[in-house]
Design a protein that fits this description.
Methane Monooxygenase Hydroxylase, Chain G, domain 1; single chain; 99 residues; elongated; mainly alpha
């Protein structure tokens, strides 16, 4: 869905395949979170919960890295071709957010 409000300056048109892939990955993380919530309700062992939290962390980092990679191949390349080198600083900031 492309933003149409006046405050939005940027938008990314994703293919239906890309949207489906990202949505599927987020749904998996969402399911893991619900699972952890149930584990807490069931008084499961702390070690098991921490292992699941680690899996969620890794899943989100992987998703973020995938999005950055795609961003670099599409948006960033387009902006560099237009002469906008500020995107290099932007990508460094994005990468720091994931670490």
């Amino acid at each position: 869905m492309k933003c149409s409000c006046k405050e939005c300056k940027k938008a990314k048109n994703r293919t239906e395949e890309e949207k489906k892939r990202l949505s599927t990955r987020l749904s998996m993380v969402e399911g893991q979170i619900r699972g952890i919530k149930q584990m807490i309700e069931d008084d499961r062992d702390c070690n098991d919960i921490v292992i699941q939290l680690s899996a969620i962390n890794n899943g989100l980092k992987s998703l973020g890295n995938s999005m950055i990679k795609n961003h670099m191949k599409t948006c960033m390349v387009d902006e560099i071709k237009k002469g906008n080198l500020d995107v290099v600083d932007n990508i460094a900031t994005l990468m720091n957010h994931l670490s």
